[in-house]
Write a structure and sequence with these properties.
It is a single chain. With about 750 residues, the chain is α/β, with parallel strands linked by helices. It folds into two domains: about 10-200 and about 280-305, no CATH class; about 320-385 and about 425-755, no CATH class. The chain has helices at about 10-25, 60-75, 90-105, 110-125, 140-150, 165-170, 175-205, 215-220, 230-235, 285-295, 320, 325-340, 345, 350-390, 440-460, 470-475, 520-540, 565-580, 640-650, 670-675, 680-695, 730-755, and strands at about 30-35, 40-45, 50, 310, 320-325, 390-400, 415-420, 425-430, 460-470, 510-515, 585-590, 600-605, 610-615, 620-625, 630, 660-665, 695-700, 705-710. The protein has an eight-stranded mixed sheet, with helices on both faces. A three-stranded mixed sheet has the order 1-3-2, covered by helices on one side. A hairpin with a 5-residue loop joins strand 12 and strand 13 (about 610-615). Helix 3 runs parallel beside helix 5 (about 140-150) and helix 6 packs antiparallel against helix 7. The longest helix has about 40 residues, at about 350-390.
């Protein structure tokens, strides 16, 4: 598990650790989210605990607030608790808070100190707004609230009639008992209010209020009082002002129990059952209201530290995502045949595909030595690994050849060597089919073909998938001509993943093109390799104006770079692929330039009739969640999200290797390193020296287990020694040296690759 500390002042390490605390306290895998909200809330249905970023709270206060919310998660029932409530919800808030805090402290006694110290700190800051109040005059519900939160600091007075009501709150063990206690307190408060109202009315009738003379009023500089209704004048501000209400009329945060996110309580303004007297309304728990309002000051919900939480889709429709090799190459062959049979397109030239296919034959012949080298390396590495795991044990049977040494040698028994069976392997290749790869796709495809030839020879199952967002490929898969339908439109049934709120958003046009597979026979495999080479050859010569070979099929054009989408889908697909091929290790080989856009999450808009749309959010603050694990927030670099997804894959499949292969021009190598998050100039220069010398560099501090960066044109260089007839010794020497250097360059990456696989 890894976290990130932001430079904007928000300590994300501490925040996420507190999230882990919440999950531990709840003894379940709660979904804990930190967001820019003023107050905490808990969704009892989805089991999502939303916590504010209490960056201004001490550790004790933070633990108090987290423990309180976890208490609701554990002990507050999953039901509409305010339906048909016999009292104001503020009363139930008080009694339920007392109950769940008692239960959470009973379950985790260590929290008692945090609750005690935390409430002490908050009381010192006058969070309950009682510093200037006479606590004896507070309503009963407020005194009960203070008693169970800060009773040890502010001893609350209770009459003999009030004490049983207070004790009923403390003795409540069930939610129903908390409701009953709240109801009893409310009924008592109403009875007391009615009694006081009766006494006030009697007093008003008995008292005769003298009317001052006009001269007296003039001398005081005020307006004369309306003798017909003196109380009205006092309440409306004529004459002497009315006494202030208990708490200021301010907007307060939403109640922790209000699912709708709106506070339905009304702040007391004097316009209540005791209008004009300033008596606190019995409908509102003012101490709790003040506490909730002041608690918002602990949260950092105005800075740029808002977090977006992303999860992997719960459902992936692989049948919609994967376009089979047979479908691809059958359609491609049809288009190529139509091209070579059209005289207008050929312009009197011979079939250009004959020349291209001959070039492929030459490539296979020249690369056969590299493939054989890989096979030899693989077998030797595998044998060495097996030998290292071998164990030697004595059999208990005498070795007659050693009997003569019994006087000075105790080892006279036969031994047996046991070699454990090695784990069988499988390989999945992900080939970037984006436009940014156009300059390197020729050599990248050569690498792919070579590696697949190696896998075919040693019997390793494999699949090569291109990843792309292409409506044409979708229509091909659906059996329709892409010119008959808008390729940007994909019908809803072609959805590729679930689209629940908070899940990664995957475009429905996203596809894996199964370019090569080990499931076909050798003849079909060679045919598919030839077809793939045709596409590679086109991009090699695309800038040659007189090049007459056909373009790639309409459904196999280069597009965007949905690398992150490909990794998200691969998260679940690797396990499925392992089971289908009955392998213990499934290695993932990613051939890409590494440049991918950030991945949005799904959001549902009620204004758009429940339509799901991609929410790009704030990428600098995205946290990826998977199986209770949280991965550090995504920084502004797009590659950071890619690295985090690779980290998820490595932790999901720890027995597998996640390898990257990148064909990179020498002039863009330093830029590529920085894009991978390598900014240290000394480290960059070190990699540049290796690249200059070996034409290949192995990078280990990225999201991959190993990332192989191969310089452009290094792999396709002819490794055969070529000299003219009658060449001098010096010319032969130079040709031989060049050949050895080329072979070494080509095989540096291959050796490192084989070591990982073996």
């Amino acid at each position: 598990m890894s976290y990130c500390v932001y430079t904007n002042g928000t300590d994300m390490t501490n925040i996420e650790i507190k999230g882990s605390l919440a999950r531990l306290l709840a003894t379940e895998n709660l979904v804990v989210e930190h967001k820019q909200v003023p107050t905490a809330s808990f969704d009892v249905d989805k089991r999502v605990l939303t916590l504010p970023m209490w960056t201004r709270a001490s550790d004790e206060v933070y633990n108090l607030l987290v423990g309180h919310e976890v208490g609701h998660a554990l002990f507050t029932p999953n039901e509409d608790i305010f339906e048909n409530l016999p009292c104001p919800k503020g009363y139930l808030n008080v009694t339920e808070d007392a109950r769940i805090e008692k239960l959470i402290k009973r379950k985790f006694p260590g929290l008692s100190k945090d609750f005690h110290t935390g409430y002490s700190e908050l009381n010192d800051e006058d969070f309950f707004c009682i510093e200037d109040e006479n606590v004896e005059l507070l309503p009963l519900i407020d005194r009960i609230n203070l008693h169970f939160k800060i009773g040890s600091y502010a001893l609350m007075p209770f009459s003999s009639a009030e004490t049983p009501l207070r004790d009923a709150v403390g003795n409540a063990e069930t939610f129903q008992e908390a409701i009953d206690a709240a109801k009893a307190i409310y009924e008592y408060a109403k009875a007391e209010e009615d009694r006081q109202d009766g006494n006030d009315n009697q007093g008003t009738e008995a008292i005769s209020m003298p009317t001052p003379s006009k001269e007296q009023m003039d001398g005081m500089g005020g307006d004369p009082i309306d003798t017909d209704n003196p109380l009205e004048d006092l309440s409306t501000g004529k004459g002497n002002p009315a006494p202030p209400t208990f708490a200021p009329d301010v907007d307060t945060p939403e109640s922790k129990y209000d699912e709708g996110g709106e506070n339905t309580e009304k702040v007391s303004t004097g316009e209540n059952r005791n209008q004009g007297y300033g008596r606190p309304s019995i409908e509102v728990v003012q101490t709790q209201r003040s506490f909730d309002y002041n608690a918002t000051g602990l949260a950092d919900y105005e800075s740029g530290a808002n977090l977006t939480y992303a999860t992997f889709p719960k459902k992936v429709k692989y049948d919609n995502i994967i376009v089979k090799a047979e479908t691809l190459w059958t359609a491609a062959e049809k288009e190529w045949n139509e091209f070579v049979s059209n005289p207008e397109l050929l312009k009197g030239e011979p079939d250009p595909l004959i020349q291209v296919d001959q070039a492929y034959t030459d490539f296979v012949k020249s690369s056969s030595k590299d493939v054989s080298y890989m096979v030899k390396e693989f077998e030797s590495k595998k044998a060495a690994s097996a030998y290292a795991r071998a164990s030697v044990a004595k059999t208990g049977v005498l070795d007659t050849s050693k009997l003569h040494t019994y006087k000075f040698n105790d080892d006279i028994f036969k031994k047996v060597t046991r070699t454990p069976d090695g784990k069988n392997h499988g390989l999945i290749f992900l080939l970037d089919w984006s436009g940014s790869m156009s300059g390197e796709i020729y050599e990248t495809i050569l690498q792919v073909i070579n590696l697949c030839q190696f896998c075919k020879k040693v019997g390793i199952p494999f699949d090569v998938y291109s990843f792309v967002v292409d409506g044409g490929m979708c229509l091909l898969q659906d059996g329709r001509d892409m010119f008959d339908v808008d390729p940007d439109y994909v019908e809803p049934q072609m959805e590729v993943t679930s689209r629940n709120s908070g899940e990664f958003f995957i475009d429905k046009r996203f596809r894996y093109g199964n370019l090569l597979t080990s499931k076909v026979n050798q003849k079909t495999f060679n045919l598919h390799c030839k077809y793939l080479y045709r596409i590679a050859n086109y991009y090699k010569h695309r800038n040659n104006w007189n090049y007459t070979a056909p373009r790639p099929p309409r459904f196999m054009g280069l597009g965007g770079t949905p690398l992150n989408e490909a990794l998200v889908v691969m998260k679940s697909y690797m396990g499925k692929w392992k089971s289908a091929h009955n392998v213990e290790k499934c290695h993932l080989i990613v051939l890409t330039d590494g440049e991918s856009q950030c991945l949005p999450t799904c959001r549902t808009s009620d204004a758009m009739f429940g339509r799901v749309y991609p929410d790009y959010g704030n990428y600098t603050q995205t946290i990826i969640r998977d199986n209770g694990r949280h991965y550090k927030s995504v920084c502004p670099s797009n590659s950071e999200m890619t690295n985090r997804l690779l980290e998820v894959l490595r932790e999901t499949y720890p027995e597998s290797n996640i390898l990257g292969i990148r064909i990179c021009p020498s002039r863009g190598f330093s830029h590529f390193l920085r894009y991978q998050g390598i900014w240290d100039q000394g480290q960059i220069e070190k990699y540049q020296k290796v690249m200059k010398k070996k034409k290949c560099a192995v990078i280990t501090n990225t999201g991959y287990d190993e990332l192989y960066v191969v310089q452009s044109n290094s792999y396709s260089e002819d490794t055969e020694m070529k000299v003219d007839q009658g060449a001098t010794k010096a010319e032969i020497k130079r040709a031989f040296g060049k050949s050895l250097k080329s072979k070494a360059t080509n095989r540096n990456m291959l050796s490192a690759f084989v070591c990982q696989i073996a």
